[in-house]
Amino acid sequence: MAELNVEHARTSDSDRMIVNMGPSHPVTHGTLHIVLELEGEVIVKATPQIGYLHRGVEKLGENLTYQQFIPLTDRLNYCSSLMNNVGYTLAVEKLLGIQDPPRSRVLRVLCSELARIGDHLVCIGINAVDIGAFTAFLYLFKERETIYDLFEMMAGQRLHSSFTRIGGLFRDIPPEFEPLCEQFLDSCPRAVDEMERLLTHNPIWADRTKGVGAITPENAISWGYTGPCLRAAGVAQDLRVGQPYLDYETYDFDVPVGTTGDVYDRYLVRTEEMRQSFRIIRQCLDKLKEIGPGPVIIDDYKIALPPKEKVYTRMESLIHHFKLIMHGIDMPVGEVYSATEAANGELGFYLVSDGTKAPYRIHVRPPCFPIFSSFDEQVKGRLIADAVSILGAMNIIAGELDR
Amino acid sequence: MVIERIDEQLPGAILDRHAFRGDRTVVVDRSRLLEVVDFIFREGYQQLMDVTAVDGGQRDPRFDVVYHLLNLTSQERLRLKVRVADQESVPSLVSRFKSADWSEREVADMFGIPFEGHPDPRRLLMWEDYPGHPLRKDYPLDGGDAFCSQDIGASYAPDARSLNG
């Protein structure tokens, strides 16, 4: 398409210049290719080209069992893979009509909120780096390391966690988890404050972000915006409040809302969301103490694998283990759409089951896909420098954009 | 509820309906999709979350085009379905929802379902002269030999269609 655009520009208007942003420019966050048509320094048209990372995740999912798909969800958004695990597992549990044990539900909330903080840290930090503020990024990245340490304690993996199982979790958290989490809850809010001192009232940051990429609530809804970008435009839509899952209705937190929907408001909304997530994590730790030790996966060997001690000592459990691995779970015939509030917005999984061990159709609704589709409208009439800050604030994750 | 009101206002537009685990689905007559969408838009379903399709394989008509809509006020969701045969087109919803633009392009790219009245009907993920539509059930899992134009979509290894043997 790049060639076609060049041809069009040559014949129609000789003053127009084509600039390719990406596919491997540092500001394009992965591999995104954006063809910009410029008149002088002003962007006349932006044509995003996606598909560079397309791995056919949905097609693969149709040929794997429900359990085997969990590691593929990690690769959708590598900044918050735990959240993708939770979202997918909830969809399968909705299809099965089951619920995981209370302790697992609290742990799922805990790891989702940690992932949300990690995602926002990266988004704000990298957006600041793209715009030219490097120091804030360093303050934030130190805390992100602690989040990955916590993930490693939970799941045994830092980046691709594959932590959830259908009906619960892979394992309980180790005793060392809580002290480190407390330490994190103490140090990370301070880092966020430092970042705010560096950015929020910084005149250069304000000049580069205020009024850039502003969008009306009606337009944001029509473009299918969800998450921080929609809330920054003034629509108080949060699935954790609107359609609570994992007992989110029992947690005490606020939904920050912006007014203009510009890059500055998106930054403010994300910053405040991190503070709300600290509150939720604090409540999770209290709840874990309240619930005490207990199972983190359901006690139904037709869905979740029996514990290894039983597999080695009891015939019945060995058969269950074999049947689950070789034949999978007995799925009801039907279709569900399950959505969770991921860091970036609504992460939906649409599953169609025909009763066999593999889903007949599996579709991922990534949050950044509809947001990125409005890129042309957002950057029209602005400068390339604004395109960079808008792209960063949209938090495009190429892995889930083209799946 | 909105489904009863569609029945009242637009009799005959709904061909089939079912509910499963709290998800409500209505199958809409293809020729009346725009009417139904206009009606439920006025009823508050103003966010088109997602458009996708399901390939029924040997079934007739072959495809289901699936729309997920959200009512932001009441937080209710509704799934619309339209049944289409191979090569049959579906009316585009871009004039009503801006988010339909890329979603419909993706469905057209991955399933080969044309959307009538789409302002920009290019492929979205694959390149322009890519042969075949990867999410169709008869498309080989290993991707086939995309560069061999004589034998479009033929598998590199015909016996490697399933990862589970």
On the 0-100 scale, what is the average pLDDT of chain B? 84
Count up the helices of chain B. 3
Sheet with most strands of chain B: 5 strands, mixed
What form of chain A results from the Cα inertia axes? globular
Radius of gyration of chain A: 22 Å
Total strand segments of chain A: 8
Low-confidence stretches of chain B: none
Classification by helices and strands of chain A? mainly alpha
Distance between the termini of chain A: 21 Å
Low-pLDDT parts of chain A are none
Q: What topology, given as strand order, has the largest sheet of chain B? A: 1-2-5-4-3
3D shape of chain B:
globular
C-alpha termini separation of chain B: 46 Å
- Beta-strand portion of chain A reads 5-15%
Structural class category of chain B: alpha/beta
The quaternary state of the protein chains shown equals heterodimer
Most residues in contact: chain pair:
A-B, 44 and 39 residues
Write the H/E string of chain A, N to C.
HEEEHHHHHEEHHHHHHHHEEEHHHH
Secondary structure topology:
The complex is a heterodimer of chains A (403) and B (165).
Chain A: H1 2-12, E1 16-21, E2 33-39, E3 42-49, H2 57-61, H3 70-74, H4 81-96, H5 102-131, H6 135-155, E4 164-165, E5 168-169, H7 177-199, H8 203-209, H9 217-222, H10 228-232, H11 239-242, H12 263-291, H13 308-313, H14 315-327, E6 334-342, E7 345-353, E8 361-365, H15 368-373, H16 375-379, H17 384-394, H18 398-401
Helix pairs in contact in A: 4-5, 5-6, 5-12, 5-17, 6-7, 7-12
Chain B: H1 2-9, E1 14-20, E2 23-28, H2 33-42, E3 47-55, E4 63-70, E5 77-84, E6 90-91, H3 100-111, E7 115-116
Parallel strand pairs in B: 2-5, 6-7
Antiparallel strand pairs in B: 1-2, 3-4, 4-5
Short description, anyone?
The complex is a heterodimer of chains A (403) and B (165). Chain A has 403 residues and is mainly alpha-helical. Helices cover 51% and strands 12% of the residues of chain A.
Description of the structure:
The complex is a heterodimer of chains A (403) and B (165). Chain A has 18 helices and 8 strands. With 403 residues, chain A is mainly α. Chain A has a 3-stranded antiparallel sheet. In chain A, strands 6-7-8 form a 3-stranded antiparallel sheet. Chain A is globular and about 75 Å long. The model of chain A has no long low-confidence stretch (mean pLDDT 88). Chain B is of the alpha/beta class and 165 residues long. Chain B is built from 3 helices and 7 strands, in the order H-E-E-H-E-E-E-E-H-E. Chain B has helices spanning 2-9, 33-42, 100-111; strands at residues 14-20, 23-28, 47-55, 63-70, 77-84, 90-91, 115-116. In chain B, the strands form 2 sheets. A 5-stranded mixed sheet of chain B has the order 1-2-5-4-3. In chain B, strand 4 and strand 5 (77-84) form a beta hairpin. The chains are: A mainly alpha (403), B alpha/beta (165). Chains A and B meet through helix 2, helix 9, strand 6, strand 7 and strand 8 of A and strand 3 and helix 3 of B. Chain B: Its EC number is 7.1.1.-. Chain B: This is NADH-quinone oxidoreductase subunit C. Chain B: It comes from Mesoterricola silvestris.
